Amino acid sequence: MSVILRPKSSATTTILRSLALLAVLAVIALTPRPAAAARGCTATVGVGQVTLTWQDQGERYVVRRNGSWLATPGANVSSFVDTNPVAGATYVLRSWGADGTTSETCTTGPATQSPTDCTVTDVARGVQLKWADDGGVHIIRRNGSWLATPGPNVSSYVDTNPFNGASYLVRTRTADGAISDRACRRATTQPTPTGDRRFVVHVSIDGLRADQVRSGNMTTLAKLANNGASTLNARTDPALTQTLPNHTSQFTGRFVWGSRGHRIAVNEDPGITVHQAAGGYVSSVFDVVHDNGGRTVVYTGKSKFSLIENSWGPRAGAPDTTGVDNGRDKIDVFEKEPPDVSVGPFVRDLVAGRGPTFGFFHIRTPDEFGHVSGWNTPGYYDAVRRADANLEDLVDELDRVGILDQTTIIVTSDHGGPTGSASHRDASLAANFTIPFVVYGADVGTGVDLYAINRTRVDPGNRLVNKSGPQPVRGHDAGNLALDLLGLPPIPGSVVNADHSLRVR
Description:
Elements: H1 10-30, E1 42-45, E2 50-53, E3 60-65, E4 68-75, E5 79-82, E6 91-97, E7 100-105, E8 107-108, E9 118-123, E10 126-131, E11 137-142, E12 145-152, E13 156-159, E14 168-173, E15 179-186, E16 199-205, H2 219-226, E17 229-235, H3 243-252, H4 274-278, H5 285-291, E18 295-300, H6 306-312, E19 333-336, H7 343-351, E20 357-363, H8 365-373, H9 378-400, E21 407-412, H10 430-433, E22 434-440, E23 448-449, H11 450-453, H12 478-486
Parallel strand pairs: 1-8, 9-15, 16-20, 16-21, 17-23, 18-19, 18-20
Antiparallel strand pairs: 1-2, 2-5, 3-4, 3-6, 6-7, 9-10, 10-13, 11-12, 11-14, 14-15, 17-22, 21-22
Helix pairs in contact: 8-9
């Protein structure tokens, strides 16, 4: 009997093929996959946010929070910031790559923010952030968003366009990839002075003619003169009636020329220090206050005053050999800002430190408009009134923060200017070398003429007086007078008022 082999039906063939495919899939399923590379996901708790970081394996990533999708950062990324975190949340990093789909729980790192590591202070340019630099790359975030990347090896940043009530943090990434966030807290702006702390504020009104004090254009300065000790017949340096030479004399108690002269005879920053010009270190009022544990603050409206910062800043200041070593930087705060916006920040910087405090506040406007429209012109008179308004604001602010009764104010100038002329270079003209010198404060007499109570000083009348022989009151007296009022010794190497002989009561 023969057996006839017939072809199988198409239905049977389909069933057999499906069974074979299932067998293959079962074998594949039982075959072990290569282990996925560890991503090392870490959740770092910051200020109002959580930062997830991981090692990128060239895959596509999804972030899940508390078991639900949160975000898809995408491919070839290594971090994600949850700017609206949930307290106690858990995060999972899911990725798709050549080795399949993997999920990895992000381990929670410690909260790294330190509320006291960064401070926020109002300055004339906006808002200044300061923090302790730890060598990492710094990023500034404002209200939860990126603001700026100052970079590495910096410890401050100024937001020149701040928002009212804005919050800031400094994010730092170190060389090993670690990320930390520091909340920036507003610094105390009006600390209450303690004990018998004293302040001296030296105000220089650049280009102010002495006759303007009683002209009706300067009601505030006239009030200080009426209630203090003053003369409207003080003198500049006998050789030069220009800004930089005379301000250098005010800070050092030295003439421009002579064996102890500071030798700054130019009116623009010469690109060298005062010490280089003089051929040896020249001490200043900043040295004495700083080295005795006090505070020094300089606000100036002219860029040429960089000479002062360059000479007594951290690179050129002398070592501190008096008591505790306070470092070489003799000027704690140096700002170049116009007077109209500087009063508040200046006073806040005054009260921010400890110990005796010397502040220099420069008002540039009379000189600025004198060069434009000429001295004793309507434009100049407007500038003088603006300068007096700046002075009034300064007195009011000192009173508002509660230190006016602990402050002595010295007001003087660096030169005057001839009527109608836009130049003050001629040192032989009385209009150029005659300046006011006004002192007001608790340790000062009332309505006192400085020549009447200082027999060693000679009222020069209209004369130009050389640096030898009996001397008039000069702008050069300011530095040592400030130190005397602060109870500190005179400026080493100084010539004018080096014996603290100028009396103010």
